[in-house]
Design a protein that fits this description.
about 725 residues; alpha/beta; Rossmann fold; 4 domains; five-stranded parallel sheet; 39 helices
């Protein structure tokens, strides 16, 4: 395995970073008796910042063993409130390590004392204390008496007595036990220090640092991976200690990531950092010649593991050179991290293709496919799902006749547009010559027989072998979607297909592919297509911020816009053939409010409104039980009410006043609302009294509720009565 971990020594340097690192290390060593120096070592993730840092550390240690190097890791502290005190405590601990000469003993003690002061200040200021200001005053008051009158035994006794009594009570409050312990420790410490102040402590640190003959290097890595508030804490920590002499801060971060995190409406991230960082060094870009040589050397070692009886067949040096240099494979490998990521996967998957010591794939084609799989997974999946397109086998589905050249070219160009990239296009055309030929006439140097012998992916019998371990079961091919379009005239087949889509988690792929290929729907089946969306809408759930139902409604209206000249006929037939459809209220709302997207006249819009209202009215009157249980019952009712208030109000109020239908129609007015608090979803049930008031006076409704409840023994109906008096939650 190629471990993606930072190097430690210059002997491990593969990309000539040692010279840069040595120069930076020497510059740090030469910094003497001056104000602190803040250096930033920046670079994108994976560029090798930590490796360069390790080389800098190694250079300093080998040049001057007396230089103390301290690496502080702020992400180890869960709260930014603790970072400041933890920093000085860690510095003190590091200075005490291997200090046989006791050179740093006094300085370590002063750092530890300073940390102690900061820790107690933060605890006292913690949110838990803000809730008990009276206790805080008593506790700090006791501390003050001990500091002010260290020799007054009576006051000491009184203060300690108060603190001891309060301690018993404080243990019942989460977070206050730590406060009690800190204040008690602080009392004892301050008594020993004779009222030593925090300013005195910091001045002593400055004096000790100024006497050093070499600087202390403090390294803080991965700052960009901290949370925003933690970043500010670390930067404030650095800034507040720049008046110390003989301290060099080396800060490592991705400049792009960090500055984006701290940028807001009040400041730009780069301006903030410029006030703190005195000099910035960008990690040198890797030497691409060395990086490519390293990759090729490792590929050679892998090739050596292939039995010699097949390696000549599956590896062609001229083909590799063309793929690697001319067609741009090298563009994927810009850092050691990308090389390691590829090699670890490639070697494992390639060797799994050995069958009885025979490699079942072409070594070079497999390099390209693995590169796509790792760095462009969407393209990789699309290749697998579009086998016929890749191999030049496109046919008209169900007709088994060749497509026109123009249509093939359009499909190939669409594939490149949807899934390709500037890095992948030439590679794609090279390993799939027939696909290339769809776009422009090309010359395939390998015969079918040669492709089979070399196990090339462009041979039909070899293609599936390349995806043996990486087949996605949740994606649909373009051609399966087109096949669905062409069989829409079979209702049972359509329902079976859509059930399978939903049950086997292929819904996302269906939505994506369907909208992209609406032009493939036969003209005589367009209405069948919209009816199928209605069936799927009723099939899927309505959960989530953007539910599957919402996504289908978007697809419905986006699809409608595609058929600009048939929009009225499509909607008119849809309304007639889908009684009722949950999409009906949304249809009118969409075409009325966004008429510029639809070629429907004002007269036709009114006709559609009439048809929807009539559809809903007949549904409510003829299928009351189904209406009451329908998920869009309120939308249906309000549409009818807005269309014909008099008729709707008269009919619904009669149902309310009829004991036989009272509780049935009452259910229409019981609604639910969903909310998410702290990531936890909840649902509340309530009676929509404002909706009831549209049809009957609330007082009269309440009397009817009391009367009908009195004669009811149904628990559900009795619960409905109680719900009427349940107040709404905020």
């Amino acid at each position: 395995m190629y471990k993606d971990k930072p190097i430690e020594k210059s002997e491990e340097d593969l990309l000539n970073r040692a010279d840069f690192s040595n120069s930076l290390g020497d510059a740090i060593l030469k910094w003497r008796h001056k104000e602190s120096w803040v250096i930033a070592l920046t670079g994108d993730w994976g560029i090798g910042k930590t490796s360069v840092k390790n080389l800098v550390v190694n250079r300093i240690k080998t040049t001057n063993q007396d230089t103390r190097i301290i690496e502080f890791k702020p992400w180890e502290w869960s709260s930014q409130d603790l970072i400041m005190s933890a920093f000085f405590r860690e510095v003190a601990s590091e200075l005490e390590l291997e200090d046989n000469s006791k050179k740093y003993e006094q300085l370590a003690k002063r750092f530890r004392r300073y940390s102690y002061y900061l820790n107690n200040m933060q605890v006292v200021a913690s949110p838990a204390i803000k809730g008990v200001p009276i206790l805080l005053g008593i506790l700090l008051g006791g501390s003050f008496f001990i500091e002010t009158f260290p020799d007054n035994s009576s006051l000491k006794l009184l203060s300690n007595l108060i603190i001891s009594v309060l301690a018993i009570w404080l243990v019942f409050f989460e977070g206050l036990g730590e406060l009690f312990k800190s204040v008690m420790d602080r009392n004892e410490h301050l008594a020993k220090e004779n009222n030593y102040s925090i300013t005195d402590s910091k001045n002593d640190i400055a004096k000790s640092l100024s006497k050093l003959n070499e600087p202390i290097l403090i390294i803080i890595d991965d700052i960009d991976r901290l949370q925003r508030n933690q970043i500010f804490t670390v930067m404030q920590l650095v800034k507040s200690n720049t008046d110390f002499k003989n301290i060099v801060f080396l800060l490592l971060y991705s400049k792009t990531v960090l500055e984006k995190k701290i940028t807001d409406d009040t400041q730009a991230g780069h301006e903030y950092m410029e006030k703190i960082v005195q000099v910035e060094f960008k990690v040198p870009e890797p030497d691409m010649i060395l990086l490519r040589k390293y990759l090729i050397d490792k590929l050679d070692l892998i090739l050596e593991k292939i039995p010699s009886n097949t390696s000549d067949q599956v590896f062609d040096n001229s083909y590799f050179t063309d793929i690697f240099y001319q067609q741009g494979l090298t563009n994927y490998f810009t850092s050691l991290r990308s090389v390691y990521k590829f090699l670890n996967s490639f070697e494992f998957n390639l060797l799994s293709q050995l069958d009885n010591s025979y490699l079942e794939v072409n070594f070079i084609d497999f390099i390209v496919l693995e590169t796509f799989r790792i760095f462009e997974p969407k393209l990789y999946s699309a290749i697998y799902l579009n086998k016929d397109l890749m191999l030049g086998k496109l046919q008209n589905i169900n007709k088994f006749t060749d497509m026109s050249d123009e249509k093939k070219k359009d499909m190939a160009n669409t594939f490149i547009k949807d899934f390709g990239s500037s890095r992948s296009v030439n590679l794609l055309k090279t390993i799939f010559p027939a696909f290339h030929d769809y776009i422009q006439e090309s010359f395939d140097i390998n015969s079918l027989e040669e492709k089979l012998i070399k196990n090339m992916i462009s041979h039909e019998s070899r293609f599936d072998r390349y995806f043996m371990l990486n087949t996605s079961v949740n994606n649909l091919s373009t051609y399966r979607v087109i096949n669905f379009f062409e069989n829409l005239d079979n209702d049972e087949s359509t329902k079976t297909y859509l059930n399978n889509i939903y049950e086997h988690n292929k819904f996302d792929s269906f939505i994506e592919h369907t909208f992209s290929h609406l032009d493939k729907i036969p003209n005589n089946l367009i209405n069948k297509y919209f009816n199928s969306l209605n069936y799927l809408y009723n099939l899927v759930s309505d959960e989530g911020m953007i539910s599957n139902k919402t996504r289908i409604s978007f697809l419905f209206f986006d699809s409608l816009r595609k058929f600009k000249n048939e929009q009225y006929d499509i909607l008119s037939k849809f309304i007639d053939e889908n009684k009722p459809s949950s999409l009906l209220p949304a249809i009118y709302s969409r075409i009325e409010k966004r008429n510029e997207n639809y070629s429907i006249s004002e007269q036709d819009i009114n006709t559609i409104r009439d048809k929807i209202a009539a559809n809903i009215e007949s549904f409510i009157k003829d299928q009351l039980e189904a209406f009451v249980k329908h998920e869009r019952r309120v939308s249906f009712l309000l549409f009818w009410y807005d269309y014909d208030q008099s008729s709707c109000k008269s009919y619904i109020s009669c149902l309310i006043k009829n004991p036989a239908y009272f509780f049935q129609i009452y259910r229409v007015f019981i609604r639910s609302s969903r909310a998410t608090t702290n990531g936890i979803a909840s649902e509340s049930i309530f009676v929509d009294k404002s909706l009831i008031a549209n049809f009957i006076d609330l007082g009269e409704f309440e009397q009817l509720l009391i009367m009908n409840s009195a004669s009811s023994t149904n628990n559900s109906e009795l619960e409905m009565k109680d719900l009427f008096y349940t107040p709404l939650e905020d």
